[in-house]
């Protein structure tokens, strides 16, 4: 529809066509990557021109030379501005996240002011903070004023309070209420995700009446796959998919063709639970209702995809021991502090493992081969534990693992660990015997390797299930610290088991 309007306006005269913004390129999954390379090349050329001009002008005051320099700089910046204008806001956000701070600010200054708000919504939290710091109060107000109430609420935590207040004063009464409602819902809730663009129709309408109402809108809200049907009291009774609206006769009543099995969401529900519902039932949108079953908004697949992506990124960062999302080009100090917590814990666990080894110095002195074989036991168990833990954390996130089925799952994982321990422990023991078969302890080394790997794999399976389940029971993210605790257990206990068995067998 927007493209049709553009074509009509283009025919109205050369003057209006000349004033129109350059057309955006068709969307392409690889567009952002290609555009990043082009932007980096333009920035490199711009930087090179500045460097050469500065060298040539050193000690000179030639006004003509200065004018030429300015013209060349402007040419590169205009090329860059034109390229950015062709890109979708999400692609511009991708480029900003991939640039160092100084180049990022150059690009940000070239973005048209009316697009600032859209791009701020798309960039990561850490990059958004750096962009907001570079903007003055007036720029922030102008950027945020272009957004809807739910989008303003999304940016509000990162904005100065006086900017939010000024923007709020410029909203209509209805928009103020929507903004207040959005800000009142807790982080990570459905209410924080929802927008207020839900379309409702009476169940007594005919399909022709619905179509006439829809035609009065300037455009349909994004991701509109259905309109919501309400009764005389305004309570939700069903949904009318657009395909049913189009293929049925105009005089058919809405209540005769509507769907009655519409999934509804509550504003205080967890956003992650809503995301699972969207994934399970292949939804495009879902209504959000209040306690009286009245529609107050909707959640669309666009917001749900963001939730799933953020959860995945958060889990990956947590398992790696990072406290929060990190700007790729943030300062060394900020990045280092973000990684300290789990590095400190790792250091403590490493010292503990070293003390375990130290307790068996006498055994290692008598059989030096033990020192070479120890890492194998710990490494295999760590890998097995990580496989189990990845499956468990994913299943917890999907709601498939509960305390009622945890015992059976533990039994299965212990059986798998026992089987893998016997197979790969036996292979490791055989290899150890082949390597040290000329040693008087060759056979015992093979037996020790096999037994130690079986026991350590069993331990790894137990830890991989128990730690995420316990964290989830305590209301914590199951991914946070799980891998660190698993590594600590498989290393320390692996060394203890291996060296303890060796001490008993090599007496």
Could you characterize the architecture of this molecule?
- The protein is mainly alpha-helical and 507 residues long.
- It has three domains: 28-188, MgtE N-terminal fold (Alpha Horseshoe); 200-312, CBS-domain (Roll); 339-505, Orthogonal Bundle (Tetracycline Repressor, domain 2), CATH 1.10.357.20.
- It contains 25 helices and five strands.
- The chain has helices spanning 2-10, 14-19, 31-57, 63-85, 89-97, 101-110, 116-122, 125-133, 137-144, 149-155, 161-169, 173-184, 190-193, 207-215, 242-247, 254-257, 271-281, 301-319, 332-338, 340-358, 361-366, 369-397, 406-435, 442-473, 482-505, and strands spanning 200-202, 226-230, 236-241, 285-289, 295-300.
- The strands form two sheets. It has a three-stranded mixed beta sheet with strand order 1-2-3.
- Strand 4 (285-289) and strand 5 (295-300) form a beta hairpin.
- The protein is globular, with a radius of gyration of 31 Å.
- The termini are far apart.
Describe the SSE topology:
Layout: H1 2-10, H2 14-19, H3 31-57, H4 63-85, H5 89-97, H6 101-110, H7 116-122, H8 125-133, H9 137-144, H10 149-155, H11 161-169, H12 173-184, H13 190-193, E1 200-202, H14 207-215, E2 226-230, E3 236-241, H15 242-247, H16 254-257, H17 271-281, E4 285-289, E5 295-300, H18 301-319, H19 332-338, H20 340-358, H21 361-366, H22 369-397, H23 406-435, H24 442-473, H25 482-505
Parallel strand pairs: 1-2
Antiparallel strand pairs: 2-3, 4-5
Helix pairs in contact: 3-4, 3-5, 5-7, 9-11, 10-12, 17-18, 20-25, 22-24, 22-25, 23-24, 24-25
